[in-house]
Amino acid sequence: MAITVYFVRHGQTYLNRYNRMQGWSDAPLTEKGIEDAKRVGKELAKIKFDYIFSSDLSRAVNTARLLLAADPNTDIKEPIQEPAFREIFFGFFEGANGGAVADIVGGKYGYHTFSQMAAGWGTDELKDRIAKADQYGDAEDAQRFWQRMNKGFNRLRNLPDGSVAVVVSHGAAIRSIADHYLEGVDQNVSPRNGSIMKMTLTDTDTHVDFYNQLHIPDK
């Protein structure tokens, strides 16, 4: 069994632009975000994919629709919405200024950005620390995130052998997957809006082939 998956981060939103925490909360795509989606659609036209999934959050669904419209080589009209591929839920911190949240969670340890915290602690410990800091207890910790995300991976693994799939997901979620499966990934680098991560899933392995690329390498 071998399944090829191209994870795509959605286009830029207004909350991205304003450096606001955006997990399950949602914001429209900016003009740049629309162009991000169209550009990655033209890039994905280089490959023949059989399925396209998206998180059920509107920024991912709309990115998927725009990239499909920009790809002249696909007959797929609508993404399959899969809640398992949602962004991490930040609970009480949803919508807050990202820099302020980084100071609350990591400031006393010398970390003042999410990239610094991810590089210092790893993405799973970072989730746990954010969840612990949430006074309402709503933010997802690593265990809850992976219980959800693994349902999505199980769905991908059950596709027909040899399938190629596109998944439109989110920045922190994609960085978590890369951290989990790609040894030596630079956690100081968050996946860019409209970037691509390629994975190969087999019966015995989950492998990241490349991460955070704006272009699919020519064969």
TrEMBL record:
<dbReference type="InterPro" id="IPR013078">
    <property type="entry name" value="His_Pase_superF_clade-1"/>
</dbReference>
<protein>
    <submittedName>
        <fullName>Histidine phosphatase family protein</fullName>
    </submittedName>
</protein>
<keyword id="KW-0378">Hydrolase</keyword>
<dbReference type="InterPro" id="IPR029033">
    <property type="entry name" value="His_PPase_superfam"/>
</dbReference>
<dbReference type="InterPro" id="IPR051695">
    <property type="entry name" value="Phosphoglycerate_Mutase"/>
</dbReference>
<dbReference type="Pfam" id="PF00300">
    <property type="entry name" value="His_Phos_1"/>
</dbReference>
